[in-house]
Design brief:
Blueprint: H1 24-48, H2 51-62, H3 116-143, E1 154-158, E2 162-168, H4 185-198, E3 205-210, H5 227-244, E4 252-257, E5 276-282, H6 284-295
Parallel strand pairs: 3-4
Antiparallel strand pairs: 1-2, 2-5, 3-5
Helix pairs in contact: 4-5
């Protein structure tokens, strides 16, 4: 063996083996995907949900327990305002407010002026309430044996003032005795049925009487008694029938007679359909406007007195 021969040392690096990392990353990834899905669902609800739905969701999360809460909306929970609904049928929480028991948003915060959003929300809720009443009345006309024969004489529509219910005359089925303000028995029955429906909502009403264009004069009565007086008396007779049907008197805002000034059939002013009673279940805004018009302070020109002279 030659001692002068160099010794060659070969060093080999051993690559470390990767440790088995398991499936923990899958759990983290699933949590991330779930969180993103929840986030996009929230964004979607905020984008497509109505104002009432958002308010109901907000009220629920203010107090989702069954104990009494501090929510300003009175929901039908057994523990008082603020709790969720416990009904097996009505699960909408504060969206399932009984008719006529909802608070006006403008009265929710005493002493604070309502915002534009508050007023808009109150108007939307008022409109929805009247639209629901119209659907209930249409359904009653379909199933009620008492109202079924008069279905073609009851006309329902939504106007700028509210839900308008018109009871029109037919050629062989008038609402009143000829030339008088005495209601026919079936007209009393119709108004009694309507009184129960109108009382379902807190809205006030206005009543107007209408005649056709045929001049009217009372035989043996005052010479001045004509269509204006007759239409006013008929509107007042309808008011009394609604009160007898159970409607509170304070719901009535206005009772007027319009004679033939606003015909139903403009092309035929003498048509029987022009003889009608119009009952408008007014929106809150329309009712307040009608009352404020009468409560406006009167301005008197200098030198003019409002005191009527007697005996001249």
């Amino acid at each position: 063996m030659n001692d002068d021969q160099p010794i060659i040392i070969v060093r080999r690096r051993k690559k470390p083996k990767h440790a088995h990392h398991g499936g923990a990353w899958k759990v983290a990834y699933a949590d991330f995907v779930t969180a993103m899905m929840a986030f996009f669902l929230v964004m979607w609800i905020l984008g497509v949900g109505s104002r009432e739905q958002k308010a109901a969701i907000a009220d629920y999360f203010k107090n989702p327990s069954m104990t009494a809460g501090s929510s300003m909306r009175a929901v039908p929970g057994v523990m008082g305002p603020g709790g969720p609904s416990v009904s097996m049928i009505k699960l909408g929480g504060s969206m399932d407010l009984p008719k006529g028991e909802g608070k006006d948003v403008r009265q929710a915060t005493p002493g604070k002026s309502p915002t534009v959003d508050d007023i808009k929300l109150a108007q939307e809720r008022d409109k929805a309430r009247l639209d629901e009443l119209r659907k209930d009345l249409n359904a009653a006309l379909d199933r009620s044996q008492a109202l079924a024969p008069f279905k073609d004489q009851l006309l329902l529509d939504i106007t700028s003032e509210g839900l308008r219910i018109q009871i029109v005359d037919k050629q062989n089925r008038p609402m009143f005795d000829t030339g008088s303000a005495t209601l026919k028995p079936y007209t009393v029955e119709i108004l009694t049925e309507l009184a129960g429906f109108i009382d379902q909502v807190p809205n006030r009403i206005s009543i107007s009487g209408h005649t056709d264009s045929t001049p009217y004069s009372m035989t043996g009565g005052p010479a001045h008694y004509g269509n204006w007086e007759l239409s006013a008396d008929r509107a007042n007779a309808a008011r009394r029938a609604l009160l007898d049907g159970g409607m509170p008197s304070e719901k009535v805002t206005r009772v007027v007679g319009l004679a033939e000034a606003v015909p139903f059939d403009r092309a035929h002013p003498d048509d029987p359909s022009n003889r009608r009673i119009s009952i408008v279940v007014m929106t809150d805004e329309a009712a307040k406007a009608a009352l404020q018009q009468e409560m406006q302070p009167r301005t008197v020109a200098p030198g003019v007195s409002l005191v009527a002279s007697v005996g001249r």
